[in-house]
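Title: Prediction job returns without error message
Component: structure pipeline
Severity: low
Priority: P3
Assignee: unassigned

Description:
Job completed but the reporter wants confirmation the result is attached to the right record. Sequence as submitted:
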Amino acid sequence: MTRRDLMRLAAAAVASPAIVPAQSAGRLPIAVSTLGCPKWDWNTIVRNTSGWGFAALEMRGIQDQMDLPKCAEFSGTRLKGTQRDLAAAGLHISDLGASAQMHEPDPVKRAKHMDEARRFIDLAHELGTPYVRVFPNQFVPGEDKQVTFARISAGLHELGEYARPAGVTVIVESHGEFRRGEDLIPILEGAKSKNVAFLWDAHHTCVEGEKPADTYAQLGKYTRHTHLKDSLPIAGKPKEDRHYVLTGTGEIPVKETVAVLVRNGYKGYYCFEWEKRWHPEIDEPEVAFPHYARTMRQYLADAGFKA
C-alpha cells in the first residue's frame, strides 16, 4: 500500500458517519494512543480509529486537554454519552495515561503527582477502564538507587491499594531512566500490591539494548499492556533521541516483540503510541494509524495469534 493509498483511506474514514456501528466481534486486540492525534476532536477519534479496525483507545489527552478528568467528554452528564459513543463504535478504553511520576522526592510535588494518579483512578472506575498508567521516572542525583527504588515502590503500593476497591490496576511504564529490567524489577517487587503491574514500552527497552525475549523473561509476569512503535537513530544525537517512523520501516524489532508476546500467551492490547503531540514533524495520524493497523494484523497472523 502506497502513501497515496493510505491518504485515500484516511479521507474515506473522515467522510464516514460520526459513530460506526459496533463490529467488535472478530477485531484483533490492537489499540492506539490519543497522543498520536492531538488535533482530533472526540468524534473524529472515535470515527477514524473504529473505521481502521482498532479495538481500543488509550486515552492520553483530547486535543489541548491532557488532564483527562477535566475533559468535557469525561465530565458530568457527558460521560454517559461518551460511553455510548464507544459502545456504538465497538471500542473500549484500554487505559488512562496519567503523567504522575513516582520518583519525585519533594513532598509538595510528590503530593501533586499522587493526587493526579488518584483522580485518574477515580475516572477509570467511572469508565470501567482497567488500568491507569504512571511513570517511575528518574534517578535522583546524588541519591542511592535503593532509596529511589523504595520511594517509587511506596508510591505504587499506595496507589495500588487505593485502586483495588475501584477494580483498577496501576501500571508503571518502562520510561524515563527506568528502561531496563534490572531497574524495573525492584520497584515492581517492592510495590507488594496485586493492583500494580507493568506497561511494557518495548521501544524504550529495545533502544537500551535488551532483546524482546529477554525483557519478557524478566517482566512478562507483570506485563498487562504494551506500547509499540518504530524508529531510526538521529546522527549525532544520544541513543534515546530517535526519529519515529512508520511501523516496520525502522530498526526497532516490533515484529519480534509481537511474536514474543503471542508465544507467551499475552492477553492485553498491542497499543500504538505514535508521539505526534511531542514530535509534530512525524507523519500525520491519517497515515500512521491505518498503516499500523494493517502492519499489526500481518504481524499477529505471522505470529500465529488466535483470538
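Comment from assignee: result matches the submitted record. The chain has one domain: 3-302.
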